[in-house]
Design brief:
Distance between the termini: 43 Å
Bound molecules: heme C
Radius of gyration: 18 Å
CATH topology: Cytochrome Bc1 Complex, Chain D, domain 2
Number of strands: 2
CATH superfamily: Cytochrome c-like domain
Order of helices and strands: HHHHEEH
Largest sheet: 2 strands, antiparallel
CATH class: Mainly Alpha
Shape: elongated
Amino acid sequence: MKLDIKLILAGAALAAAVTLAFAAPAAENWENHCAKCHGADGKGQTKVGKKLGVLDYTNAADQAKFTDEQATKAIVEGARDKAGKERMKGYQDELSPQEIKDLLAMVRNFKA
Ligand code: HEC
């Protein structure tokens, strides 16, 4: 019986490790590519984020201002102002479609 419990615990630890392995990249990518403007906490209260006037992703009203399609397009292609000046660069060359999908989920998850 003792052995069974050990096996079950080992299985649970393995499952947790696998979950972490899948969860890490989005958080890592956010930290490396996005946090400078959107903030580690998604609030956009960084020096650059404030200057650009980015949305607060913890705010439900701000989250309602864009669709998943628009968000994906912004991450893939970037965003420009009316004069054509770049506000956010596109990440299609650096991130895979799966990584972009995971980042979108992360953006949506900042909402409390
Ligand atoms: C240089 C600062 C900067 C960086 C770095 C940056 N963004 Fe943005 N992001 C912006 C700005 C500014 C906008 C608003 C663009 C506009 O005017 O429509 C924006 C818009 C978005 C949007 C569309 C919804 C919205 O808030 O208008 C999403 C989603 C998004 N960014 C996610 C990301 C992700 C994910 C990353 C990292 C891979 C990232 N951003 C990196 C500045 C940045």
